[in-house]
Design brief:
Function: May act as a mediator of the PTEN growth-suppressive signaling pathway. May play a role in developmental processes.
Organism: Camelus ferus (Wild bactrian camel)
Helix content: 40-55%
Keywords: ANK repeat, Coiled coil, Cytoplasm, Elongation factor, Protein biosynthesis, Repeat
Number of domains: 5
Distance between the termini: 32 Å
Strand content: 5-15%
Subcellular location: Cytoplasm
Number of strands: 12
Protein name: Ankyrin repeat and BTB/POZ domain-containing protein 1
C-alpha cells in the first residue's frame, strides 16, 4: 500500500501553501449566517455541521472536516479569493477545491499558516515508511519517471536528492529526460551531479562498500593491471568469488601486490569487475562489455555473465553509452556472501548455534586483522568493516597511541577487549556490520538497541525498531513510544502513535499515557495555553488519515472526542 501511495504521490501530488489573515473576516455560510471568528472558542467536533467545508481546487484534492483539531477556526464554504492567497501547483485553479484533513499543519502561535500535500507526501513515505525510492511498478516505471512526466519539479529534485537513479546515457536516465514535461525539469536532470543511487544515503550499506572500493580503507592487496593500480580487500574477494579465494590461498598467497600482465585483461573491465564484487552492481561502457564477459568467465562469476548477456539481448538504444547491471530488489546474494565473514569471525564455541549443517566457512581463509575479546570469547574480525561502519570502532582501532590494544591474540592479531556487552549481543552487532542484517527476536531488541546506540550504528537501531514494533499492544505501546523517543527512532515513534490512534479510547484511561501527554506538554519550551502538543498532534493525524468511509468518520469523531475529554480533564487545551 505504501508503494502504491508513492506512485500516486508522484503522479498527482504536490505541495501548496495557504496563508490565512490573523483575524479572518466574517464570511457568509451557505445558510446565510456569519462565520465564527477566531476569537470565539472552537465548538466540539460533534457539533460542527458536516456540510461546511473550506475547499481548494487542484489535482488529488481531499476534504477538510470543519472543526478539525488541526484547524482552529471553523471552516466554511467560501470563494477562495475572499480570504486566502494561494501558491501551489501551476495547473491548479484558484476557485474551489479541498484541503486534506490528515496532512494539515498549523502554527498555533500565529495561527496564520496551513501547509498541506495533495496526496500522501513522498517525504513521509520515504523517511517514515521507508519505501524504496527506486521501486518499479508493473510498467517498469519509477517514481522519478512519473514525477518528470507529470511536471512536478520540486518532487523531482527531492527524489534525486534521496537516491533516485537517473544516470546519463542509461535507460532510466534517457526515459526520464525525454518524458520530462518541462524544460526546467530537463535542466534539473542534466545539471544534477549524478552519482549512483546505491551510494547515497538511501542505502548506506552500499555506500560503505563503494567507499571501501574507491578509498581502499585498510586494504591488504593491490592489483596492478597494465600500469593501473586497484586497492582491494582479500576478505571481500574471497567471500564473493571462489576463484579469488583459491588464487589468494595459492598463487597469490602472501603477496601484497599482484601484477596482471595478460593482454586480454582490460583495466577498465577489471575495475568494473571489482565494482560488481563489492557492490553487486556494475557500470561499464558498451565498448568494454566483451572484456567484462571474458573476465566473468575466467573468474567463474556466472550470475554476472548471465546479467550481461541479458542486458545485451535487450538491445539498448543507440543513445545508451553506459550499461548498468543491478541486482533485483531485495537480492540477498551480496549480503549472504559477506555474512560468511561473520560466520568465520565467530568463536568455535559459539558456532554450534548455526545448526547441524557443516559450518559454511570451512576452507575459507577470511584473512582477519583484529581480534575482539567479549566475555572471554575471541571474535576474529576485519578493521575495514568495523572502522568504516562505526565511528566508535574507528576511534577505538585507529588510536594513534595504541592505548586500546592489548597483547596479541593467537595468530599474531592485535586484540581489544570490549566491556559492557555480552557475546550474544555482540554476535548481532557482528552480523549487522558484515551483512547489514541480523536475526533479531523482539525480546533481545532492547539490549541490542542500547549497544547499537553506544557503538553508533544507526542502521542496527532501525532494525531493533522494526523488531520492537512487533511488540505493540495496549499495555506496551506507551513504553515502546518512550524508547523510540529516547533513541530517536522516528519510524518506530510514528508506528506507536499510529497504534495509539487505533486504541485511544482505551489509552485515555491508562495513567502512563496521561503522564506521557503531560510530559510532552511540559517539554514544549515556553508553551502557551493553546499551543499544540506533539504527541497529541501525531495521534490526531493518524485518526484523520484513517478516514475513508462515513462509518470511519463517526469512529474517528468518537476517538477525537475521547482525546479531547482527556485534555480538558488534565487542563491542557490544544
Amino acid at each position: 500500500m505504501d508503494t502504491c501511495d508513492l506512485f500516486s504521490s508522484c503522479r498527482k501530488g504536490d505541495v501548496g501553501r495557504v496563508r490565512l489573515p490573523r483575524c479572518p473576516p466574517s464570511l457568509p455560510q451557505p445558510g446565510g449566517q456569519p462565520a465564527t471568528t477566531s476569537s470565539q472558542r472552537r465548538p466540539p467536533l460533534s457539533q460542527t455541521p458536516s456540510a461546511q467545508i473550506l475547499s481548494l481546487s487542484g489535482p488529488g484534492a481531499c476534504s477538510l472536516t470543519p472543526g478539525s483539531p488541526h484547524f482552529h477556526t471553523p471552516s466554511v464554504l467560501v470563494p477562495l479569493p475572499q480570504c486566502l492567497s494561494y501558491s501551489g501547483p501551476r495547473s491548479s485553479a484558484l476557485t474551489w477545491g479541498r484541503l486534506p484533513l490528515p496532512l494539515l499543519q498549523v502554527s498555533s502561535r500565529s495561527g496564520t499558516v496551513l501547509t498541506w500535500a495533495l496526496t500522501s507526501p513522498p517525504r513521509y513515505l520515504l523517511e517514515q515508511r521507508d519505501v524504496e525510492v527506486n521501486v518499479r511498478d508493473k510498467w517498469d516505471s519509477t517514481p522519478l519517471y512519473y514525477a518528470c512526466l507529470c511536471g512536478h519539479e520540486e518532487l523531482v529534485r527531492y527524489l534525486l536528492a534521496n537516491g533516485a537513479r537517473c544516470e546519463a546515457n542509461t535507460f532510466d536516465g534517457e526515459r526520464c529526460l525525454y518524458g520530462a514535461l518541462s524544460d526546467a525539469i530537463r535542466r534539473a536532470l542534466r545539471d544534477y551531479k549524478q552519482v549512483p543511487a546505491s551510494c547515497r544515503r538511501r542505502d548506506p550499506y552500499s555506500s560503505f562498500l563503494l567507499r571501501l572500493l574507491e578509498q581502499g580503507l585498510h586494504s591488504d592487496v593491490v592489483f596492478s593491471v597494465h600500469g593501473r593500480s586497484f586497492q582491494a580487500h582479500r576478505c571481500i574477494l574471497g567471500a564473493r568469488s571462489t576463484y579469488f579465494a583459491n588464487m589468494l590461498d595459492t598463487k597469490w598467497k602472501g603477496k601484497s601486490v599482484v601484477v596482471l600482465r595478460h593482454p586480454l585483461v582490460n583495466p577498465v573491465a577489471f575495475g568494473a569487475l571489482l565494482q560488481y564484487l563489492y557492490t553487486g552492481s556494475l557500470d561499464v561502457g558498451v565498448e568494454h562489455i566483451s572484456d567484462c564477459e571474458r573476465l566473468a568467465k575466467q573468474c567463474r562469476l556466472w550470475d554476472l555473465l548471465g546479467d550481461l548477456e541479458a542486458k545485451l539481448a535487450s538491445k539498448p538504444g543507440p543513445c545508451v553509452k553506459v550499461l548498468t547491471v543491478e541486482p533485483p530488489p531485495a537480492d540477498p546474494r551480496l549480503r549472504e556472501d559477506l555474512a560468511l565473514l561473520a560466520d568465520c569471525a565467530l568463536p568455535p564455541e559459539l558456532r554450534g548455534d548455526l545448526g547441524e549443517l557443516p559450518f559454511p566457512c570451512n576452507g575459507l581463509n577470511s584473512f582477519p586483522d583484529i581480534c575482539f575479546r567479549v566475555d572471554g570469547y575471541s571474535f576474529l574480525c576485519h578493521k575495514a568493516f568495523f572502522c568504516s561502519r562505526s565511528d566508535y570502532f574507528r576511534a577505538l582501532l585507529e588510536d594513534h597511541f595504541q592505548e586500546s590494544q592489548e597483547p596479541e591474540a593467537s595468530g599474531g592479531l592485535p586484540a581489544v577487549t570490549l566491556q559492557g556487552v555480552s557475546a550474544e549481543v555482540f554476535t548481532h552487532v557482528l552480523y549487522y556490520v558484515y551483512s547489514d542484517h541480523t536475526e533479531l527476536l523482539p525480546e533481545a531488541a532492547y539490549d541490542v538497541l542500547a549497544v547499537a546506540d553506544m557503538y553508533l550504528l544507526p542502521g542496527l537501531k532501525q532494525l531493533c525498531g522494526r523488531s520492537l514494533a512487533q511488540l505493540l499492544d495496549e499495555d506496551s505501546v506507551v513504553g515502546v513510544w518512550r524508547v523510540a523517543k529516547l533513541f530517536r527512532l522516528a519510524r518506530l515513534e510514528d508506528q506507536c502513535t499510529e497504534y495509539m490512534a487505533k486504541v485511544i479510547e482505551k489509552l485515555v484511561e491508562q495513567e502512563d499515557f496521561v503522564e506521557a501527554v503531560r510530559e510532552e506538554a511540559a517539554a514544549v519550551a515556553a508553551r502557551q495555553e493553546t499551543d499544540s502538543i506533539p504527541l497529541v498532534d501525531d495521534i490526531r493525524f493518524h485518526v484523520g488519515s484513517a478516514v475513508q468511509t462515513r462509518s470511519a468518520t463517526e469512529q474517528a469523531q468518537q476517538r477525537l472526542q475521547a482525546l479531547e475529554h482527556l485534555l480538558v480533564a488534565i487542563g491542557l487545551d490544544c
